[in-house]
Amino acid sequence: MKDSSHHHYLTLVLLILLPITFAKSGDWYDCSEDEGIKNPKIKFLNVTSIPATVTRHSGQTIYKTIQYDGVLGVDPDLEKISADFHQYYKLFDNRWTTFLHLHRLQRCDVKGNENLCPLKVGDSVELTSVHPSLGWYTPYGMYRSRELWRNGSTDEPLGCVDMQFEYRAEAGHDKTEVVEASLRGSPFVTVDQ
């Protein structure tokens, strides 16, 4: 029993002291290069979160515009697409710490992704993810979600997006603002409610 509890303390100490992962500035960015994808075939053209600041009772809706940027006649239509989800919390407002990592979750036929598959070369699609309010036990602070998208048939990495959001008790005010935080000049629209 003693050895087990020491192991848990050691793990906690290592999580606090070791440098984990540091995010780039902005609300979202294409992390394909970070993941070693030299020629990403899935491009994230826009990612929008409403509200931008998640509160105790708000929930969150995330809109993504993606494009299959493969080579016509060379790259196949994507019949299956999966994604690895890596979730982080900014511990002590200092270091990004993993709290959940899920591998190869199917993205086709998921609610909000009905028009994703099959995805043909050159196609762009709009995707929607609706998240309910977070649990009462969820700590306030900064969160990140990194999605590594893959060809669901071959497991080839296709593209990556890294998104950040803040979770707090109340938004404090109602306002809409457009923040330039995109890769290709498309605005990131934020709405605090």
Topology:
Blueprint (H helix, E strand, L loop, with lengths): L1 H16 L10 E3 L11 E9 L2 E3 L4 E9 L12 E11 L3 E12 L17 E8 L9 E11 L5 E12 L6 E5 L8 E5 L1
Would you give an account of this structure?
The chain is mostly beta strands. The protein has one domain: Distorted Sandwich (Ganglioside M2 Activator Protein, Chain: A). Helix content is 8%, strand content 46%. It is built from 1 helix and 11 strands. Strands 1, 3, 5, 6, 8 and 9 form a 6-stranded mixed beta sheet that branches. It has a 3-stranded antiparallel beta sheet with strand order 2-4-7, with no helix packed on it. Strands 10-11 form a two-stranded antiparallel sheet. It is elongated. The N terminus and C terminus are likely disordered.
CATH-assigned homologous superfamily: Ganglioside GM2 activator
Count of extended strands: 11
Number of helical segments? Answer: 1
Which spans have pLDDT < 50 for at least 5 consecutive residues? Answer: 1-26, 174-193
Mean pLDDT: 81
CATH topology heading: Ganglioside M2 Activator Protein, Chain: A
Largest sheet: 6 strands, mixed
Helix content: under 10%
SS-based class: mainly beta
Q: In brief, what are we looking at here?
A:
The chain has 193 residues and is mainly β. The chain contains one helix and eleven strands, in the order αβββββββββββ.
Keywords:
193 residues, mainly beta, Ganglioside M2 Activator Protein, Chain: A, six-stranded mixed beta sheet, 1 helix, 11 strands, 8% helix, disordered N terminus
